[in-house]
Amino acid sequence: MAKREIPLFIVDTARWHNQGDADFIACTDQDNGFVARIDIVSSGEPDTVTDNLRIGHENRGYKMRMEIKRVTGNNPKPSAIRTLMKKACDYYSENKRTVMNTDNPSTLECVRFLELLIDGNRHNIQEAGVDYHKRETIKASLEMLEAIRLKLLE
């Protein structure tokens, strides 16, 4: 079997999708590929595993909720998709979620947090619609966060 030419999972954390505070992950498997939405929910939600939904990975009072929005594979099998969803949850948890030391954060942790704030709030520009003042306030806020981020990197 040939080595994989593209990554198995591709994560979209830019939030330019007008879907609110959520990330998306795409599984590129030819037979069982999918696109799933990732939300953070309360830890009170029960751990769940179905053919298109997985809730788990508790961390500091929250859990990750992954729901398949579209199956893109050529010959999808529910058992294989469930296995890939587990791998996708593990991949997202290990590579995209970071623990921050809030008592005494390093400069790098502050920079990463500012990047999260900037990326997580870009969608607010589009949500402001035609309200010029609201759009300008959001733009100025994002520009200020970016300026602070760059200042910390000096």
What order do the helices and strands come in, and which of them pair?
Elements: E1 9-12, E2 23-27, E3 34-42, E4 48-49, E5 53-59, E6 62-71, H1 78-95, H2 107-121, H3 123-127, H4 132-153
Antiparallel strand pairs: 1-2, 2-3, 3-6, 4-5, 5-6
Helix pairs in contact: 2-4
Tell me what the structure shows.
This protein is an alpha+beta fold and 154 residues long. It starts with 8 loop residues before the first strand and ends with a helix. Helix 2 packs antiparallel against helix 4. It has four helices and six strands. Helix content is 39%, strand content 24%. It has a six-stranded antiparallel sheet, with helices on one face. It has helices at residues 78-95, 107-121, 123-127, 132-153; strands at residues 9-12, 23-27, 34-42, 48-49, 53-59, 62-71.
Number of strands: 6
The assigned structural class equals: alpha+beta
Global Rg: 18 Å
Gross morphology is globular
Helical content (DSSP H or I, runs of 4+):
25-40%
Strand content: 15-25%
Attribute tags:
154 residues, alpha+beta, six-stranded antiparallel beta sheet, 4 helices, globular
Gist?
The protein has 154 residues and is of the alpha+beta class.
